[in-house]
Amino acid sequence: MVSKKVKKKGKAMIHVENLTKYYNDFCAVDQINFNIKKGEILGLLGPNGAGKTTTLRMLTGYFMPTSGTIRVKDYLLDKHLLEIKKLMGYLPESAPLYHSMLVFDYLDYVARIRGMGKDERISRIRQLVDLCGLDEIMHRSINELSKGLNQRVGLAHAMMTDPEILILDEPTSGLDPNQIAEIRKIIKKIGEEKTVILSTHILSEVEATCDRVVIINKGKIVADDVMENIKQSAGQKYFIHIDLLNAAFQDVHDQFSKIEGIEKVERILEANNGSLSIRIACESPVDLRETIYQTIKQTSWVLIEFHQETKTLETVFRELTKED
User: Fold this and answer.
1) For a Cys staple, 156 with which of 57, 60, 97, 128, CB 3.0–4.6 Å?
2) Alpha helices (H) in 139-263, listed in sequence order
3) What spatial distance separates the first Cα and last Cα of the chain, rounded to whole Å?
4) Which residues pair with 245 in a beta bridge?
């Protein structure tokens, strides 16, 4: 059996306390608190408009908070902004590239701005070419590249000074499945040595890439834990799917609605074979499957399908970010 490599986490690299941001009278981020450990890949997850990008822009010093504190290592954002920026690489949703330049010229230009000497520039660019898979495009114009290749060049830019922290805002937005897989692979490789914060609203992105998840909704944190703990702690609500023959929906609805702990009975579809497919929403500390089965046995209905819906990040996400 092959043992899985376990990445060691260090002490807190970033400490956020009561972080708040207002745009005039609108509260985009509302008193959020979290820590990020050294060597952790953190997924900042939430629907569009939840406050993810605003949070990242405050972490990078692009926006100053209305109130609250951000500490990176031993530095406070409001007192040591330049020192904090030196620790970070940041890739916004749209990579800020000069499209008229060749890839090599662009990366060399970025390295010069960062004050690197010739030998250091050449050595670092070679490392980034290998890391980001840029070997075949170094002498192509940036305006000829696909969005996926643009994102790789943007990653190389963000990693130029070998920062301890890498912040990525929607890094796979608009990419095709192959490009997404390539970017994920690069992020996971970077995450073996760096602290990575990954903002996205794509659930599969978080499950495939991140060690820990923070879910933010309407400016507030609604969950903060490793993936499995979030799935297990998202309340006692679960769903059961049943397919029945010789059953009318109204009769099924009336029978199951009498069972304590069943919140809702809804029809999913009626198949060509005449079966009735229903979804039962349960919220109970006990397993209601036996009670449901015994109810069916007392009728003339024929049970042809019975299963409990597996709780996924998607179902948890919907529960935590629903409107009400």
Assistant:
1) 128
2) 147-158, 177-190, 203-209, 227-233, 249-257
3) 47
4) 302
Contacts of 69 (CB under 8 A, 6+ apart): 15, 16, 17, 18, 19, 76, 77, 78
CA distance 89 to 190: 12
The number of helix segments (H) and strand segments (E) in the chain equals 11, 14
HEC assignment per residue over 112-149: HHCCCCHHHHHHHHHHHHHHHCCHHHCCCEHHHCCHHH
**One-letter amino acid identity for 256?**
F
Radius of gyration of the chain (CA): 25
Q: What is the pLDDT of residues 113-127, one digit of tens each?
A: 999 999 999 999 999
Which residue's entry shows tokens 């499957």? 289
Residues in a beta bridge with 43: 198, 213
Render pLDDT for 161-179 as a digit per residue (tens, 0 to 9).
Answer: 999 999 999 888 888 888 8
Both tokens assigned to 302: 């024929």
Rounded Cα gap, residues 111 and 95, in angstroms? 16
